[in-house]
């Protein structure tokens, strides 16, 4: 699979994913009373966003044909 996540999309995934993962851990650890189900969902979604942001590869982007990387043409 080629890279299809870049720019603001990548930054947003990493930042929001990190926040969601931490919120999920806090909820599951009992530090934040939002419920276990919401904590698990937040944690899983956060991890997915972190992984797709750091690897720059998203299967859903590929399925719908979306590419947010900035392609720079090389000049000779």
Question: What's the structural blueprint in terms of helices and strands?
Answer:
Layout: H1 7-28, H2 36-55, H3 59-64
Model description:
- The chain crosses the membrane at residues 12-28, 34-53.
- By secondary structure, this protein is mainly α.
- The chain has one domain.
- The protein has helices at residues 7-28, 36-55, 59-64.
- The protein is elongated and about 60 Å long.
- The two termini are 28 Å apart.
Label this structure with key terms.
single chain; 76 residues; mainly alpha
End-to-end separation in angstroms reads 28 Å
| Tally of domains | 1
Which consecutive residue ranges, at least 5 long each, have pLDDT under 50? none
Q: Helical percent range?
A: 55-70%
Given the C-alpha coordinates, what overall shape results? elongated
Number of helices: 3
Give the ordered list of helices and strands: HHH
Overall residue-averaged pLDDT value = 92
Report strand %: under 5%
Radius of gyration: 15 Å
Please summarize the sheet with the most strands: none
Task: Please identify the structural class as seen in this structure.
Answer: mainly alpha
Number of strands: 0
Pfam families: YgaP-like_TM (PF11127)
Protein name: Inner membrane protein YgaP-like transmembrane domain-containing protein
Keywords: Membrane, Transmembrane, Transmembrane helix
Transmembrane segments: 12-28, 34-53
What is the structure about, briefly put?
This protein is mostly helical. 63% of the residues lie in helices and 0% in strands. The protein has one domain.
């Amino acid at each position: 699979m080629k890279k299809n996540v870049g720019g603001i999309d990548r930054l947003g995934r990493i930042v929001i994913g990190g926040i969601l993962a931490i919120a999920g851990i806090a909820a599951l650890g009992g530090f934040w009373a939002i419920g276990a189900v919401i904590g698990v969902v937040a944690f899983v979604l956060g991890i997915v966003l972190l992984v797709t942001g750091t690897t720059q590869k998203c299967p859903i982007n590929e399925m719908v044909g979306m590419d947010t990387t900035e392609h720079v043409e090389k000049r000779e």
